[in-house]
Amino acid sequence: MSARILDGKELATRVRARITDDVARLRAEHDVVPGLAAVLVGSDPASQVYVGMKHRACEAAGMVSRQIELAEDTSQEDLERVVSELNDDEEIDGILVQLPLPDHLDPQPVQELISLDKDVDALNPYTAGRLAVGDPTFFSCTPYGVLEILADAEIDTAGAEVVIVGRSNLVGRPLSNMLTLKGRDATVTVAHSRTRDLAAVCRRADVLVAAAGSAGLVTADMVREGATVIDVGTNRTDEGKLIGDVDFDGVAEVAGAITPVPGGVGPMTVTMLLQNTLEAARVRRGLPRR
Ligand code: GUN
What we know:
Oligomer: single chain
CATH topology of the largest domain: Rossmann fold
Bound molecules: guanine
Distance between the termini: 39 Å
CATH architecture of the largest domain: 3-Layer(aba) Sandwich
């Protein structure tokens, strides 16, 4: 193996220590404790794990964490009522509705309802639109984590060819908008399931981001020698093992730098949710973001 391993877990530990200090200072100086509410509908095992991680990370950073667990058969109206109540709840600075929702529920009206000043998951279409027009409020947590990993590794995106595989609203689309902001200045290609000759497109990349949700999709022949490879995939094998979208062992032979799964982007997603919640708490009280 030749690639440098980009250790998201170690970076997350460092960033969370800084956030914990900032939370303590906010409490001491302004008597403010940031609060996050996470709404989980139903009992999807992966979602339960993710919401549990967010809850523990919040508490460890000294924030208020409220977990709201709703039954699988919750109606659209009841879910929207819960979100409206959180919008009006003074203790809560950030609201997150864990996806995917059960099939009978439509996420879009729920996301549209989340107060813009509490939209720490950045999935309200208005928040996404603000980013799309180059005037962002909150960054979605997973792409934000990707940017932090690149910045910490001193991998400059200005002028770089970045290929993102996957066009989801959670990762691919917002990440492409973030990377083309002034100051980041990447040349971005968003590839997807209908892309012609995916391997050739991927080989153009200085930075290749795999966010398709397809285990082992990215293989060594798709990676240019020395490229940076960021694996956003979270797939489970039949044995329950967590694996990414990248064939790690093969790709690590040709890449210059690579994130592992687990221990890469995942810990940074939770960390950036804490960061957004801290910023929301500050902005809501008229304080500067940092
Ligand atoms: N499901 C998987 N990732 C996410 C995320 O970042 N936010 C929400 N709300 N649901 C998710």
